[in-house]
Amino acid sequence: MVVLKKKINGSVLIPLLGLIILVDLWGVDKRHLDDKSFTDKKKAEVPFTASKADLAILEDKDPNYRVLNLAGPKEGPFNDAATSYFHKSIGGYHPAKLRRYQELIETHISGNMQNIIQTLQTNPSDSALRVAFSQQGVLNMLNMKYLIYNPDAQPLQNRYALGNAWFVKEIKMAENADEELKTVGEINPATTIVVDKRYQSEVEGLKLNPSADDKIRLTSYLPNHLTYESTTNAEQLAVFSEIYYKDGWNVYVDGEQKTYFSGDWVLRAMRIPAGTHKIEFKFEPAKYYTGEKVSLVSCILLFGMLGGAIVLGLRKKED
Fold first, then answer.
1. Which residues pair with 250 in a beta bridge?
2. Could you give the C-alpha distances from 290 to 81, 132, 285, in angstroms and in order?
């Protein structure tokens, strides 16, 4: 650099080095991001086109159900992003899938899917198809209301989907995680819940006998705030067709925070008191709110120091 300074003027050298660096980086960047890596703006605004099956499902006025698409990419519904663009999907793709859900896919969901596919291949009657759906307990507890088997045909409606929440009549305790995962594929989730013995204290003394008058329904849905309304004659045990994730999700009954626990391997469950109540699940991660407070204090200090520097500068100027 010293030699260069002696032969080339500094005002010329710096722009020249900048140009050399720019040309070098341009070549490297083009090897990783070429013209094919960018999408036209019009294409980005409408990345997927709704099929006939998608449009039929979207006619459903209740958006709080899930869809299983067996007509997506050959890699299967768990490598498909298009369905999630239009619906709440049983499948979808993410490189960081929850381990429990991945184990549920490998142990039960894949088998449920194969059962349905085999039934469809026999050109079944409506009654045979209903029987097939009734036997896929894991898909039913995940609230799979619609199944797409041909994008250009009407979707199949599953009348055995259990909805967003329901009350159960029986509790099966599992000794460990392996037993819970195995048992969840053997029960009828409409009437029975499998609970790991770690949560035994949550169900002690609970006598289950839900009546036809006992109701629980989802009244409002946001990704971080779900609201339900329940009406029961006695205390009941509700299962919610939402993934159990304790780190950040809190539950409130009429504004008072309560506890909930894991059931059926991946779902949420909790005791519901008698009477009519408003139940809310809210995503309130403590680390996020702590970060917000730290950011606020940091901003206040920064502006305080800036204001102090300005005041000091003005005083020195006056002096």
1. 282
2. 33, 49, 9
pLDDT reading at 3 higher than 70: no
Contact 228, 164 (CB under 8 A): yes
For residue 266, give the nearest of 243, 240, 238 by alpha carbon: 243
Task: Look at phi and psi of residue 33 and say left if phi exceeds 0, alpha if psi is from -120 to 50, else beta.
Answer: beta
Domain carrying residue 30: 2-37
Q: Quick check: 10 pLDDT over 90? A: no
> Is residue 275 in a domain?
yes
In whole angstroms, what is the distance from residue 265 CA to residue 109 CA? 13
Q: Which of 88, 75, 47, 58 is nearest to 223 (CA)?
A: 88
Express the helix, strand and coil content of the chain in percent, nearest 5 each.
Answer: 40, 25, 35
157-206 tens-digit pLDDT: 999 999 999 999 999 999 999 999 999 999 999 999 999 999 999 999 99
- Regarding whether 263 and 181 lie in a shared domain, the answer is yes
Residue 255 lies in a domain: yes
Per-residue pLDDT reduced to its tens digit, 102-153: 999 999 999 999 999 999 999 999 999 999 999 999 999 999 999 999 999 9
Are residues 92 and 57 part of one domain?
Answer: yes
45 found inside a domain: no
Q: Scanning the structure block, which residue is given the tokens 């086109």? A: 49
Q: Are 102 and 73 in contact (CB under 8 A)?
A: no
Parallel, antiparallel, or unpaired: how do β-strands 170-174 and 192-196 relate? Answer: parallel
Q: What is the CATH number of the domain that holds 223?
A: 2.60.40
Residue 193 in domain: yes
Distance between CA 80 and CA 93 in Å, rounded? 6
Residues 208 and 145 in one domain: no
Tell me the CB-side half-sphere exposure of residue 186, using CA atoms within 13 A.
Answer: 8
